[in-house]
Amino acid sequence: MKKAVILLLMCAMLTGCETGAASDVSVQTTEQITVTAAETISIADEASAEATQKATEISAEETTKTTEVSETEKTESTPVAYYGEIITDGNKLVGKNTGETVRVTGMSFFWSNWSQKYYTADYVDYLVDDYNCEIVRCSYGVQDNGVPHDKSCEPLIEDVIEQAIERGVYVIVDWHSHGAHNNPDEAIAYFEQLAEKYGSYDNVIFEIYNEPTQVSWDTVKAYAEKVIPAIRKYSDNLVIVGSPTWSQDVLLAADNPVNGENIAYTLHFYAGTHKQWLRDNADKALEKGIPLFVTEWGSVNADGNGSIDRTSTEEWFEWMDKNNISSCNWAVNDKDEGSSIFKQDSILSETGKYIMELIRERTENAEWRGN
User: Fold this and answer.
1) Known catalytic residue: 211?
2) What is the pLDDT of residues 23-53, one digit of tens each?
3) What pTM was computed for the model?
4) Domain limits of the chain?
5) Annotated catalytic residue: which of 57, 296, 315, 337?
6) CB neighbours (10 Å) of residue 122?
7) What is the CATH number of domain 81-369?
């Protein structure tokens, strides 16, 4: 349009001999064309600006949608968001959301009273991000008379619980004692307030007795049937019960289970000490219909020390793989013993590197990741 205006002006200049009337017409026409061109350019500019604004708005809207989807995917890509509450179904543990067998793998913190520096949100993040843990276990240190070693640990345990909830992983709260039955009232008081505060979260699992020692199953069962009702006032979440002989006599529990719903039984093993005979007993317990959860295991000897028994550890993992058994390794600590995953200053020990490999092998392609 601008080129047409210029050509007309040139024509008017070259034809100056034309009559005044013709010149007036030419000028008039030129003015009209100039005005028309200006209007057209103005309209085009307005249309372009409007299109640009709309494109910007669409782009911003799409960015917002992408961000929202990204955040949603991030939230949903966690074990708890995918499986939901872990519940019992015969001798299996299943996800309430999926109805399918759940197998989660992770780490156990050391006695809370002796390793407080590790009971932090940062270490939960480390275990989730570096170890690919789907579950962590708090070991609230309790003396053999049933009294906690140090009640000032409780806020630290809650820090771990809350960060596990934030990260979408499961967390076991373990009454870490060898004599809890000597004072059930302490356990009742603690688990009741814990269930009231966190029992509505699918993440939280209650382990009410770590390792009974040389006591009868009847004693352990009676203790469990006192503590569990306190939890059930506020929560129907999974409860895990130990068995005599450092939670190895699971057959005794299978023959006479605790009365109640959504109850599993812990099996503890240390690969350097416990071999095929314990797996055979565990198989029999499963056949009798109780669900098992390995809340504590080690790649070394039963005293927590010694070198890694890789052959036995791999045999145990083959068994857990076959039976979809969930587990937590002992322990997140830097004590100078074979089971600690850290040396001083939180540098990974040989055990720490080995355990990381074992856990990552089983969690990197987990179902909840969409694989």
Assistant:
1) yes
2) 333 333 333 433 343 343 343 444 444 444 5
3) 0.81
4) 2-60, 81-369
5) 296
6) 10
7) 3.20.20.80
